[in-house]
Each structure stands twice: as C-alpha cells, then as structure tokens.
C-alpha cells in the first residue's frame, strides 16, 4: 500500500435558481468541502454564459471560490424580521393578539384605551406590510402568523 498526500478532490460548483436565493443556498448547502477543492455558486442563467461558466469551473477546480454577485447581494441584503420594525408596545399588543385576545381584553390588560389599541394594531399592520385593501387575507391572522413564525424576541 502506497501512502502519501491524498489526491486533490474536485471542487463543487452549484448552479442556483434565482428563486432558490430565498431559501439561502449557501447556508443550506449539504456538501461540506472540508477544505479540499473549491466551491462555487452561480445562478443558472450565468451557467448559460459559456465564458463565465468555464472561468468559474477553472477557478473551482483550482481550489478557488466563485460566488455569483447576485448571490452575494442577496446574502448582504437579507431581510431582517419584519417584527424588528415594531415598537416594544406594538410587540406586546401583537403578543396578546397571538394569545387570541380581543381588543377589549388588550385594553384591560395594558390599561390603555381601545382607541390606542386600535392605533397600535393599525401601526402593526402597516409595519408588517398588511394593507387594508387586501381582501384575500385576514390581516390580524397574518400578523399573528408573522409573530409566531419570527418569534416574540425579534
């Protein structure tokens, strides 16, 4: 048996669809490279540009890293939770809404007027981009789902 340095591993070039960016292709990649070979992420339409694709393959084969500029742009502009836009009081109101409380119960628990509760709720809808003219969704339910999805401590 001959021992010596392991042969270089081939690199990994992952074509990514634009809509796949929402799921975070780089973070969720199941192929861990362990420091061997290169890695690259290109949008599929970039793969169709033969020159860019060949250059990326050569870089990856040489152990380098290639990341499509749009993938980088997406990672750098990744959206914060919409709940981060809410004030602490609005998060408190939304938390009570998530508990299934009616506005009257929220007024009693927070010791504020029903008019103020209504203003907080309208502000929550605005900040969570839940327009009043959307007849397909129940804004209160959508706001609570956002709260439950993103967590109360966001």
TrEMBL record:
Keywords of the record: DNA-binding, Transcription, Transcription regulation
Signal peptide: none
Domain HTH luxR-type: from-to ranges: 79-151
Listed Pfam families: GerE
GO process annotations (BP): regulation of DNA-templated transcription
Taxonomy, superkingdom: Bacteria
One GO molecular-function entry: DNA binding
Keyword Manganese tagged: no
Protein name listed in UniProt: HTH luxR-type domain-containing protein
């Amino acid at each position: 048996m001959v021992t010596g340095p392991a042969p270089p591993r081939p690199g990994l070039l992952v074509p990514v669809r634009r809509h796949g960016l929402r799921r975070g292709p780089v973070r969720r990649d199941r192929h861990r490279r362990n420091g061997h070979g290169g890695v690259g992420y290109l949008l599929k339409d970039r793969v169709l540009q033969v020159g860019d694709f060949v250059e990326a393959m050569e870089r990856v084969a040489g152990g380098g890293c290639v990341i499509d500029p749009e993938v980088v742009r997406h990672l750098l502009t990744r959206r914060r939770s919409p709940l981060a836009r809410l004030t602490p009081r609005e998060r408190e109101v939304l938390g009570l809404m998530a508990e299934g409380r009616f506005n009257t119960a929220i007024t009693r628990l927070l010791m504020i007027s029903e008019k103020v509760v209504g203003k907080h709720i309208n502000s929550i809808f605005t900040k969570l981009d839940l327009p009043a003219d959307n007849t397909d969704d129940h804004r209160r339910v959508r706001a609570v789902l956002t709260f439950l999805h993103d967590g109360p401590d966001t």
